[in-house]
Amino acid sequence: MVYASAFRANAVADKIDGQVSMANTSLDILRQKLSAKQAVIGIVGLGYVGQPLALRYTEIGFRVIGFDLDETKVQELNAGHSAIEHIDDTRFAEARQNGFEATTDFSRIAEADGLMLCVPTPLNKYREPDLSFITDTCEKIADHLRPGQVIALESTTYPGTTKEEVLPRLEKNGLKVGEDIFAVYSPEREDPANQKFTTNTIPKVVGGHTEACLQAGIALYEHAIDKLVPVSSTETAEMTKLLENIYRAVNIGLVNEMKIVTDRMGIDIFEVIDAAATKPFGFTPYYPGPGPGGHCIPIDPFYLTWKAREYGINTRFIELAGEINTSMPNYVFSKLASALNERQKAVRGSKIMVLGIAYKKNVDDMRESPSVTLMELIRDNGGNLSYADPHVPVFPKTQEHVFDLSSVALTQKVLAEQDAVVLATNHDAFDYDLIKEHANLIIDTRGIYRTGEPHIIRA
């Protein structure tokens, strides 16, 4: 185990010596059970974060119980099937044989020694943090907590959430955090379908409410994760997660704005980026697109801007990047409308196909996908809309977006029938030569086509 921090486990353990004996007793018992892999691991929330964690702990010899409110998901996982495309069903079938089980029965929280909360943290309609999944989960598990458990929040949130929202709920029945039970914040760092990194190879930040909590968090994660990064508090860990994603959001906003400028100047932004990337220091390439998606980049910056107002700070730089990124589907739509207009066609009545509706290539994850916003713009302006995405065969039913559509297979005939196709997500499964040869008009948001054919419009 590697600890990438000045916090050495032995040094922290020395500081704990002499503190409350009850904390030592609870902590020592917990650490012994985790060390012997006799502890039960509970994963609350079986989505893109919770499922990989459940698999990892099962594969290294822990008994794992997964908790979720979705009865259908629970039944599927217990049958050895994951609805997440990049997670092979054979892994869950093996996990079931090794003792993994999923349940909707939260009274079984008491069976777990280590609990990881992996629930969503969306924004409400006013783009303010919605912590209801966190607070509801804490309320739900609080009645079943017992001494000797460690609870780790993994959901992205603003600094202070663990202390202000989680701890009071965990302690509502008299258990004391840092003595009876232990609370940590350890932000998830999953990157779906990224073959270069797995759950165990991605370094993991861990912050505890107290030093005893930190030690409990280290004991919880050290067997499953190759490299831990202990930090001094839960607030530091919460801010670390926001900085990681705001860094990306700001750079994506910069390059998206550069795309608009270079397009007006007749300069290829992708050629510019490739040339700049040859500098061996001081530059990291980011690439433009129709806008960022997923659960992190479009959302996390607004968590910090909201919290910063409590301190009288206006995070103008971060908010500007967010505005640029959220405006990109409108920019793409304007390029589409302009290109159709030049061909004496309007959006209304035109057959328009969106290629790729997942938020990034080679995944089935549609959370906050800019493609969906673009689809709504096309539909609401009278376009005859269709889509092709081999990773999303049927448009899922959601409260926010309603489309009664299924993915269309790309053939010469289908492509030739479209007035325009919008390349929104650059899946490897697409036949780009076929698209280039048979589509009448291509709106390329990903820089797939670098040549200057008149029917290919960079957007």
Brief rundown of the structure:
The protein is an alpha/beta fold and 459 residues long.
Structure description:
The chain has 459 residues and is an alpha/beta fold. The chain has 15 helices and 14 strands. It folds into 2 domains: 2-232, NAD(P)-binding Rossmann-like Domain (Rossmann fold), CATH 3.40.50; 267-458, 3-Layer(aba) Sandwich (Rossmann fold), CATH 3.40.50. A 9-stranded mixed β-sheet has the order 1-9-8-7-6-5-2-3-4, with helices on both faces. Strands 11-10-12-13-14 form a 5-stranded parallel β-sheet, with helices on one face.
Question: Which structural traits does this protein have?
Answer:
5-stranded parallel beta sheet, 459 residues, 2 domains, 9-stranded mixed beta sheet, alpha/beta, Rossmann fold, single chain, 15 helices
CATH topology of the largest domain: Rossmann fold
Please name the fourth-level CATH homologous superfamily of the largest domain: NAD(P)-binding Rossmann-like Domain
The value of Rg in angstroms is 24 Å
Sheet having the most strands: 9 strands, mixed
- Beta-strand portion reads 5-15%
Q: What count of structural domains?
A: 2
- Unreliable stretches: 5-20
Report the CATH architecture of the largest domain: 3-Layer(aba) Sandwich
The end-to-end span amounts to 46 Å
